[in-house]
Amino acid sequence: MTTTRPKDQWRRWIAENLLLGNPPEAIRAGLTSNGFTEEEAAREVAGALASPYVLGATRVANRLRKREWTLTVYGRLARMRAGGGEIVRRERLSRDEFFEEYYFQNRPVIITGMLKSWPALTKWDFDHLRETCGDNEVEVQFGRESDENYEINGPKHKRLMPFREYVDMVEAAGTTNDFYMTANNASRNQRALDVLWDDVDPISEYLDGDEAKGRSFFWLGPPGTKTPYHHDLTNNFMAQVMGRKKVRMVPMHDTAHVYNTLHCYSEVDGSDVDYERFPAMRGAQVLECTLAPGELLFIPIGWWHYVEGLDATITMSFTNFLHYNDFASDYTTYQHL
């Protein structure tokens, strides 16, 4: 036997594939192609099939498949709804319309007209950012293009620098995903850029103004910045201030199709889906929009989304909704799924 994995790792692999419904002959073939003899492969798979642990886990897996089937029903029904295949734009939704038709129903929407009073829409450019708080030290992510798991490994990519230097880099960069100021850099940057919040009027129709600080986030990056497919643990507003962003979204009920292996992250590259490697993505409904300055995108909790900057962009995001949004308090699946 030439396999280099410890035998217990292969046994976990065998059990996982059996529980995923892969046929025993395919699992045996996978073992033999990795150094097991045919006799060893047959013995290991037969032992797993007879194991009371695997048999017990199979009952749990069947229950999970029933839940996944239930979610597929929701998905089919959602596709039947008028406008179910697009992210609609609505002008200045009333509070009741927003919460009843979108927030409570877990549906995305682009709201227009709500940011017209924001001074940020006319004041924020590179010169203003440098003049206002250019000397303050900010935290930014760097080295993202050398790490395919840059979002998962975000803490390893943090760097401190004067905000002025970072703005200079964004202005001169061209298209790149190598550096980005995101919500993951929020705690330090909210203090460093505090004065900018004076240019952002409260969206009191939907948000709790008393909780704005600490639950609002500043994003700044060059063209080409990417946020890979993931879902959030809260409902979110994405308010576009400068530049455009392309957003692709997959409903929460299609989670079974997006190859979620760790916490809230997907293995799928949202910029160019490899359907040979990830065939189940063909069953996912993907909704796409381009968010322009002055527009407000509602991203419902659990919806998978991929975001790409088409220009140099500034975005504000908010989680301080008037209604309950503390869904993370009972979330426990941070480990590999």
Structure, explained:
The protein has 337 residues and is α+β, with helices and mostly antiparallel strands. Helices cover 30% and strands 21% of the residues. It has helices spanning 7-19, 24-32, 38-50, 52-80, 95-103, 120-123, 126-133, 163-172, 186-192; strands at 89-91, 109-112, 137-142, 158-162, 179-180, 216-221, 226-230, 236-242, 245-250, 260-262, 265-266, 287-291, 296-299, 304-309, 313-318. The strands form 4 sheets. It has a 6-stranded mixed β-sheet. A 4-stranded antiparallel β-sheet has the order 7-14-9-12, with no helix packed on it. The protein has a 3-stranded antiparallel β-sheet with strand order 4-3-5. α1 (7-19) packs across α3 (38-50), α2 (24-32) packs across α3 (38-50) and α7 runs antiparallel to α8. The radius of gyration is 23 Å and the shape is globular. The model has no long low-confidence stretch (mean pLDDT 93).
Quickly give the structural class.
Answer: alpha+beta
What fraction of the residues are assigned to beta strands by DSSP?
Answer: 15-25%
Spatially, the strands of the biggest sheet line up as 1-2-13-8-15-6
| Low-confidence regions | none
SSE arrangement, N to C = HHHHEHEHHEEHEHEEEEEEEEEE
Apparent shape: globular
Helix content: 25-40%
Query: How many domain units?
Result: 2
The helix count comes to: 9
The H-level CATH homologous superfamily of the largest domain, spelled out, is: Cupin
Largest sheet, in brief, is: 6 strands, mixed
Quaternary status of these chains? single chain
CATH topology of the largest domain: Jelly Rolls
| Rg (CA only) | 23 Å
Protein name: JmjC domain-containing protein
Pfam families: Cupin_8 (PF13621)
InterPro entries: Cupin_8 (IPR041667), JmjC_dom (IPR003347)
